[in-house]
Structures are given as structure tokens and as C-alpha cells.
Specification:
19-stranded mixed sheet, 40 strands, 879 residues, 15-stranded mixed sheet, alpha+beta
């Protein structure tokens, strides 16, 4: 049972779903409180149609109903529900609804030892049964109308021009509406079909809000946020009982939810639990992010049998950051066409007894008492019979429920590693154009005045701004030329041959096209990417990626071409051929970023990057021999040329000289001499019990509870094409990322290698380590030596390195009250390196990550043989 956001479907579905509404009469009005104020986004449910909707921001509603009698419920959180029996004829009706403020009663409750709030007893029952409610519905099909948009209240001056070019102007309202179909199949598979949509939002994409609108509060393992119904909830939340109210035959408990500490993965607000059934009735929760607040409201109804499903949901965002002020909202009208319960899921006896008691069904009561249970179910029932569970019993019951339900799933689908995690597939069909629909007849949530103006402005200005009338499809010649020039300068993706061929051009003036170093001097580069898809399913693909570079001061033209053939996306089989003439960093994989080196060279006259000329051809084959077992084979032939500095240019420090390109402490000068080299490499990676997901014919690896083991063997051969290379390397490694409680993680990586033979090697073939000699980088610090100089610890003998990183939301700085709501994580780092000529180097560090979602800062101290050596401050950007 999820909150969800709607999608697209077919013409047949459109006619079946909305023809009845289009022929009906209009029931409209305003929902107000008893003090006369309108109630925005109040929930409306039509029992006979299993349809839910909401009022708009002004409290207005509009329902198109065929002749007949309907029982319609109007409710809003904090107000008493009103049910109206309304008979529709051939005449439109106007009916305003008054909702009284809800009075909450405090029932007589037992006070347990320690004066514990009674909310905890209720929450333990609800948390224990969450695994059951998560799987209670096996399948449903729903028709959904979705309306959403935002008011751009304020834009800081710095961004106004850029956003205006993208079609977003301060003070304007932007809105989108769509008719959709959603198909759900247990446990967490969603198919979202969008029938038709119209929008005034530039570059509109509903996918950005899918995460929250598809969030299940019953899911204990959802990584998006920690639900108050998670089995780990007591570690993160405080609960307070605030009373109950009666709705039909049910008593609804109101529970206040408060985070123990502010964190952007936690909620604050209220949840409402049905007494004795312990399922959700509704939620009214706020999640505070660094950019503002996200407000989620959801109301559930008993749609079929004992299954409660969301019938209305509201998603509001209030953005106030960096001078922006934006208010956004999404609301939906849901009609359930099909609902299938999971008949194979065992219903706990306590729930059967509760159903029987409420509905006074003697047969159900007898069935509940006569059921034969296995040992696991007997343990579940024994715990459920307790009036008050302690935390340990709650955790045990939740795990027993999870085990029982997963056991039923495995009986139906067998044991397998294919993941059943939540997936959301969006199918964009567009068979029904928005202009062909009478939106006024099918729209169950009225447009506000601003939204009407937004659509009116869009319809009237779209063609005028394009310089053509609505029937014209030919752009002005001047516009065509301007658009073409813009694509050449900034880059563009082109689609050819019914999208089976794509050409990506990175642009003439792309900032990544320019660079500088003391060896090449000024650089100008160009990059292309051509992709050929061999079938409509895109299961196989050929990539041809040519790049060109001209080194101005060295007066050298460089080129390379990468050719990749993706043969099978399930076994991840891929063949790759690389060839070119290119100046490369000795530490090609983990050296300094070219952009950073350009800046240090031009501003500080420090060229940290050391280069060689690589004239090469390389091939690679990669495939999965079994699930979790990856095999790679590589060969590479190189004709290596020695490079020297070719310029002394810099913006500053005119008297300073660049360091020699081939002068590295501890490395023999002969290692930089030009030579021919040929090596072959084979590598095996194995991750036990690696869960995966197959989506659109592509196998995506998800997670494993076990570490990844890697074995690599590389041999340099001196008998191929006059190559003089002669070395043998065996390397073993193990790495793993351990996560728990959503927020805490421990990463470790240990690698060791041994050269059995190193009689003839170029420095480019040494083992290099991940270092950050300059304080600013774009690197991940989990496997990085932040205080070691680049290259000088590289080796062709033996080595052992280890990296350990502990990440937590609260450690030191985050305990300061005004920083507790930041998304930042605090990290502890430990790095170790031992090699033949450099023994027992240890590095300790503390850092703060995810500042503005892209910045990491840290301080590190280095020790040699446990004696203090150095310290340094580091800044890393995740771009």
C-alpha cells in the first residue's frame, strides 16, 4: 500500500474510464470549516465508485457523476468526517460542505511501569503488523487524475536571467494535469501509464517527485526516509498519544511523531492508527530538507474487504533557500478498478477476532479460533495476545511476521536472487493528445484562479512566442539558424533513424574542451559519441566515441577512438577496442583531475600531473560467468614516448620554474625511457548472493550482504611486436560497504599485490595509489591517501593498503543544535600503506560530507611508523 503518482495509457482505456464521467452531471461546491474558512485539499471519497479525490487550494470540489445515488465522504485531518447521501439526476447540483473541528477524546488507558506514554503500546502493535499490511494487497489497477504545479514567488537576481531563458519567471504560476493508469503487483512493482497530459511547466518531469509519492510507510527498509512504522522507529522517534475519535465502527488513535534529533531522513507530525486493527488510517507528516519542507498528507479508506488503500494524497513543498521562494503541490483523484487481496497471506488470528467483533460475524469468529497454525504462526499469535509489548518483543514479532510473509512469497515464486525491491516503470504513450480531451468534464479537482490563468496564458502565448500560428509546423528561418548555432556551441544530442542511432556532440565551447599543463601547453579538445541500437528493445548496442586533442605548445595532434559493443545486458557481456595517440597521466585511473591541474599550473605554477605519450591499441572482454562472478580479460600494446616540459607559461610566479616532468623522488630515471610494451591481464570478481533486478531486459545488480573478492593477474610479455616489457603481478583485494539503520555505514577496502618479476617495466605500468597532493580535488576519500605526494610512493615490488571509513549523521559537529537538521554526514577515516620502500604509513581523518549535496571538507594527519609526520586540510567536490 503506497502513496503514488500517476502515469499514461491507451485510447481504449480513456474511453472506458472517462466516457461515463463526461456524460454525467456536475456536483460542485466548497468545503469549509465551522468557522467559515475554506479547507484546501480536503479528501473526498465516493464509496460506490471506489474513487477518491481532493478539493483544490481554495477548498473547491467538482465531481462529474452519472445519474444515481452515491454515499460521499468529506474529511480533512483535524476535522470530523461528513457523509452525504446524494442522488444525482440530469441537473447540476451545488452543495457546500461544513466540517467541524475534530474533538479528540482520551480513553482510559493502562499506565505501565516507568509511566510510559500509551502511544508506545499502540505503535508496537502497528510496527509489528506492518509487514502484513505491506503485503495484504496482491494487485490493483487504478485510474488517476493528477494535478500539480508551483508558484515561483521569488527568484534571486543572480538566477533570474537564466531561468527566464528556460521559461520560468518570478511571480508566475505553473501547472500540469494528467489522466493516468497505475497497475500495482506485489510486493512493490508499479506500472505507470500516462494517457494524456498538458502542462505549463518548462521541461516538466513527474519523475522528480516519484520517490516521496511512491513511499510506503509500512516499508521498514525504504532508504528514502525512516518511517514511523519502521521496526527501527524507536531509535529515531518519540511518540505521544493525543486521543482518539470514532469513524463508523472504528476508533482512530492520533499519535504525535517527533524526531529525537532533527535529520533529513526523519518525519515530524501525526499518524493515525485504527484501534485493534493497527493499520494506518491517515498521515500528516513533514520531512524537512535543506531546501525547505515537504508536507505529505494521505488518507486511506477500506476499499475492498479488510484492505485499506490511499484514496487521496497531497504532496506540498515549500522551498526557501539561497534567495528562492517556491511553493509547490501535487494532488490526485484515485479510482480503483481492480483490487485483489493476497489470499495466500496468513491473516493473524488477532486481526480475524477484531474483524469478527466489529462486524459481529459468528462464522468468522469460529474460523479464527479453529485455524491450524505452524510453529512460527503460534509464536506470532502468542506475542499478539499480549496487551503491551516491550521493544524486544516488538522487534521479534516484526521479524517473525516478515519471515512468515517472505516464506509465503518464496513458496509461490521459489528461491531466487532476483530482487523484489520496489520498481516504478513509466510508460509514455501519448496516443491521446491533450487537446482532444474536454478537461472541464473529466477534471475532479477544480483549477484555482491562478492555474486557470496559467493554462490560458500558455495556450495563447505558445504559438506567438514560436512565431507561428497553431496550424503551422515550420519555424522561422532565422530561428532555425539560431537554434543550429546554439547546438554547435553548447552541444546537443541528435536522434536519427527512428532513434536507433544517436549522435552526441559535446559542443565547440564546452569548458571541458580547454586545458593547460606544462608538457602540452594549451589544449583544445573535441568529443563525440555515436550509438547504434540493433533492435527496438535496445538489448545490444555499439558505441563509437572519437576524441581529438591539439597540444598547442607541443604542436602535436592527438586522437583516440573507443569502440564498445554491448552484446548482452543480462550477462553484462561487452567487447571493447581502444586505439589512439594521446598524452596520458602516469596515474591514469586515480591521478589529479585535469581541471584542477590546469588551475594550479596557471595560478600557482605547480604542474602536479606527470605525462607520457601513449601510442596504443587495447582490447577488453567482460562477462558474468555466473551471478555475482565477473570475468575480465585485457590486452594492451603500447609504443611509449618520453615527454618533457614545453612551456614555462603561467599567470603568476614568473620567476618560479615548473618541476621536470620525469623527475620523481625514489623512481629510477630509466623507468621513464621510451619503449614498446605489451601486457595481458585477467581479473575475477566474485560477490556471493548478489541480488539483482531485471528491468527492460537489463540486469541491474542491487546488493549483497557479503564482501566482494577480486583476483587479478597481469603479465608483461617481451616476445610480441618487439616489446621489451617483462613483469608478473598478482593482486588480491576485498571490499564491502556495510549499512544499518539507514544512516550509518562502514566501508572497508583491503588490497595487496606482489611482483614476482619486474625486470623490465615502464613507470606507467607500476602500481599507483590514489593520492591528493593538492588540497582541492574531486575524489571520494574512502580509498584515498590525502597527504601523500603523487607518484613517489608508486611501486613495482610488493604492497599492502587498507582503507576504513565510518559514516554517521551525528558524531561531533552535528550535535550542535542549529546544525542537526543538515543533510551532512560526519566521517572517520583510516588509511594504511606498506610497500617495499615505505613501511607502515597511517593516515587518520575526520570529515563532513554532503554539504549542499556536493561538498566535502576534512582534516587529516599522517604517521610513519606511528610517528607524527604531517597534517592537512582537504576539500572535495562531488561533480
Amino acid at each position: 500500500m503506497k502513496c503514488f503518482i500517476p502515469g499514461r495509457s491507451t485510447l481504449v482505456f480513456l474511453l472506458l474510464s472517462f466516457s461515463l464521467l463526461a456524460q454525467g452531471q456536475l456536483l460542485s461546491g466548497v468545503v469549509k470549516s465551522d468557522n467559515g474558512e475554506t479547507i484546501p485539499f480536503a479528501s473526498i471519497y465516493i464509496k460506490e465508485l471506489t474513487t477518491g479525490t481532493t478539493t483544490n487550494s481554495g477548498g473547491e470540489y467538482s465531481l462529474n457523476l452519472s445519474p444515481g445515488t452515491y454515499l460521499i465522504s468529506f474529511q480533512a485531518l483535524g476535522f470530523t468526517r461528513v457523509q452525504e447521501k446524494i442522488t444525482m439526476t440530469q441537473v447540476n447540483q451545488v452543495k457546500d460542505i461544513i466540517l467541524k473541528h475534530q474533538d479528540y477524546q482520551l480513553k482510559e488507558v493502562r499506565v505501565f511501569s516507568g509511566n510510559e506514554d500509551p502511544a508506545y503500546s499502540i505503535m508496537r502493535k502497528a510496527i509489528s503488523l506492518a509487514p502484513y499490511f505491506l503485503r495484504q494487497v496482491k494487485h490493483y489497477k487504478s485510474n488517476v487524475y493528477l494535478k500539480g504545479g508551483f508558484d515561483m514567488n521569488k527568484v534571486p537576481g543572480l538566477f533570474r536571467k537564466q531561468l527566464k531563458e528556460e521559461g520560468i519567471v518570478q511571480g508566475e504560476t505553473y501547472v500540469a494535469e494528467s489522466v493516468n493508469e497505475i497497475i500495482f503487483n506485489a510486493p512493490n512493482k508499479y506500472e505507470h501509464r500516462q494517457i494524456s497530459k498538458r502542462s505549463t511547466i518548462p521541461n516538466d518531469s513527474e519523475e522528480e517527485v516519484l520517490g516521496y509519492l511512491n513511499y510506503s510507510f509500512y516499508d521498514s527498509d525504504n532508504e528514502l526516509a525512516v518511517s514511523p512504522l519502521s521496526r527501527k522507529a524507536f531509535s529515531f522517534y518519540k511518540f505521544r498519544y493525543e486521543g482518539f475519535f470514532k469513524q463508523d465502527e472504528y476508533y482512530i488513535n492520533k499519535i504525535k511523531v517527533t524526531p529525537k534529533r532533527k535529520n533529513q531522513k526523519l518525519f515530524e507530525g501525526y499518524i493515525y492508527i485504527v484501534d485493534k486493527l493497527w493499520n494506518l488510517h491517515s498521515v500528516d507528516l513533514v520531512n524537512e530538507q535543506f531546501f525547505g519542507k515537504i508536507h505529505i498528507k494521505q488518507v486511506q479508506e477500506q476499499v475492498k474487504g479488510k484492505a485499506w488503500l490511499p484514496v487521496s494524497h497531497q504532496f506540498d513543498v515549500d522551498v526557501k533557500t539561497m534567495g528562492f521562494n517556491v511553493t509547490a503541490n501535487y494532488g490526485g483523484s484515485v479510482k480503483y478498478e481492480e483490487v485483489d487481496l493476497n489470499d495466500e497471506l496468513p491473516v493473524p488470528t488477532s486481526l480475524k477476532l477484531a474483524y469478527a467483533e466489529m462486524e459481529q460475524e459468528e462464522e468468522l469468529l469460529e474460523e479464527a479460533t479453529e485455524v491450524v497454525m505452524n510453529k512460527n504462526q503460534q509464536k506470532i499469535e502468542a506475542l499478539l495476545q499480549k496487551d503491551d509489548l516491550n521493544n524486544r518483543e516488538m522487534m521479534k514479532l516484526s521479524r517473525l511476521m516478515e519471515k512468515e510473509n517472505q516464506g509465503m512469497e518464496q513458496m509461490t515464486r521459489g528461491l531466487e536472487l532476483e530482487s523484489r525491491d520496489s520498481t516504478y516503470k513509466i510508460i509514455k504513450d501519448d496516443r491521446v493528445p491533450a487537446d482532444s480531451l474536454d478537461w472541464n468534464k473529466i477534471r475532479p479537482i477544480p483549477l484555482s484562479k491562478k492555474e486557470v490563468e496559467s493554462f490560458g496564458l500558455k495556450d495563447s502565448l505558445t504559438w506567438a512566442l514560436a512565431g507561428m500560428d497553431p496550424d503551422s509546423t515550420v519555424m522561422d528561418e532565422k530561428q532555425n539558424k539560431g537554434l543550429f548555432l546554439g547546438r554547435i556551441l553548447a552541444g546537443k544530442m541528435f536522434y536519427l533513424a527512428d532513434s536507433t542511432i544517436t549522435l552526441s556532440y559535446k559542443g565547440l565551447l564546452n569548458p571541458n574542451n580547454f586545458g593547460f599543463n606544462s608538457v602540452d601547453g594549451w589544449l583544445f579538445m573535441q568529443h563525440f559519441d555515436v550509438r547504434f541500437y540493433f533492435n527496438n528493445e535496445r538489448k545490444s548496442r555499439l558505441d563509437i566515441i572519437p576524441s581529438f586533442k591539439y597540444a598547442i605548445n607541443r604542436e602535436k595532434f592527438n586522437w583516440n577512438v573507443d569502440t564498445k559493443f554491448h552484446f548482452d545486458h543480462v550477462s553484462h557481456t561487452m567487447f571493447t577496442l581502444y586505439a589512439g595517440q594521446w598524452s596520458k597521466d602516469f596515474n591514469e585511473v586515480s591521478g589529479i583531475a585535469p581541471f584542477v591541474n590546469t588551475a594550479t599550473s596557471l595560478l600557482l605554477k605547480e604542474n602536479y600531473m606527470r605525462l607520457y605519450q601513449d601510442n596504443y591499441i587495447q582490447g577488453r572482454a567482460r562477462t558474468d560467468l555466473a551471478n555475482g562472478l565477473e570475468f575480465n580479460f585485457i590486452f594492451k600494446y603500447q609504443n611509449i614516448d618520453r615527454l618533457v616540459n614545453n612551456t614555462d607559461y603561467s599567470f603568476g610566479y614568473p620567476k618560479r620554474d615548473y618541476k621536470e616532468n620525469n623527475d620523481i623522488d625514489g623512481i629510477d630515471a630509466s623507468a621513464f625511457d621510451g619503449r614498446k610494451s605489451f601486457y595481458v591481464e585477467s581479473k575475477l570478481k566474485y560477490t556471493p548472493k548478489y541480488f539483482y533486478r531485471i528491468d527492460k531486459g537489463k540486469k541491474r545488480m542491487i546488493h549483497s550482504d557479503y564482501p566482494t573478492f577480486t583476483a587479478l593477474y597481469r603479465r608483461g610479455l617481451n616476445s610480441v611486436l618487439n616489446a621489451t616489457s617483462n613483469y608478473d603481478l598478482l593482486e588480491l583485494s576485498i571490499d564491502q560497504e556495510l549499512e544499518w539503520s539507514f544512516m550509518y555505514a562502514l566501508n572497508y577496502h583491503v588490497r595487496g599485490g606482489y611482483y614476482f618479476n619486474n625486470s623490465s617495466m615502464h613507470f606507467a605500468n607500476y602500481t599507483h595509489f590514489n593520492t591528493s597532493e593538492f588540497p582541492v580535488s574531486f575524489k571520494d576519500w574512502t580509498q584515498n591517501f590525502n597527504l601523500l605526494n603523487n607518484y613517489e610512493k608508486s611501486t613495482n615490488e610488493w604492497y599492502i593498503e587498507g582503507h576504513f571509513n565510518y559514516s554517521t549523521p551525528y558524531l561531533l559537529v552535528k550535535n550542535i543544535p542549529f546544525l542537526q537538521d543538515k543533510l551532512w554526514n560526519e566521517n572517520l577515516y583510516f588509511h594504511h600503506l606498506t610497500q617495499a620502500n615505505f613501511k607502515n604509513y597511517n593516515e587518520l581523518g575526520y570529515g563532513i560530507s554532503q554539504i549542499f549535496l556536493m561538498m566535502n571538507v576534512g582534516v587529516f594527519a599522517g604517521f610513519e611508523e606511528f610517528d607524527y609526520k604531517s597534517w592537512g586540510f582537504r576539500l572535495s567536490l562531488d561533480l
